[in-house]
Amino acid sequence: MSQRFAVGVDLGGTNLRIGMVSDDGTLIRLIRAPSPTDRTPAEGLDVIRDLVQALVDSTGVIPEAAGVGIPGPAVDTEGTIDMLPNLPGWRGVPLAAELRRRLSWPIVVENDANLAALGESRWGAECRGLDLIMITLGTGVGGGVILGGRIWHGALGYAGELGHMTISLDGPVCGCGNQGCLEAFAGKAAIVRRGCRLRERWGGTVSDGCGAEDGELTPAAIAEAAQRGEEWAKETLDQTGRYLGVGIANLICVLNVGTVCVSGGIAGAGELILAAARKEVLRRAFATPARATRIVVGRLPEPGVLGAAGLALTRVS
Amino acid sequence: MSQRFAVGVDLGGTNLRIGMVSDDGTLIRLIRAPSPTDRTPAEGLDVIRDLVQALVDSTGVIPEAAGVGIPGPAVDTEGTIDMLPNLPGWRGVPLAAELRRRLSWPIVVENDANLAALGESRWGAECRGLDLIMITLGTGVGGGVILGGRIWHGALGYAGELGHMTISLDGPVCGCGNQGCLEAFAGKAAIVRRGCRLRERWGGTVSDGCGAEDGELTPAAIAEAAQRGEEWAKETLDQTGRYLGVGIANLICVLNVGTVCVSGGIAGAGELILAAARKEVLRRAFATPARATRIVVGRLPEPGVLGAAGLALTRVS
Question: Considering the entire predicted model, what is its pTM?
Answer without folding.
Answer: 0.93
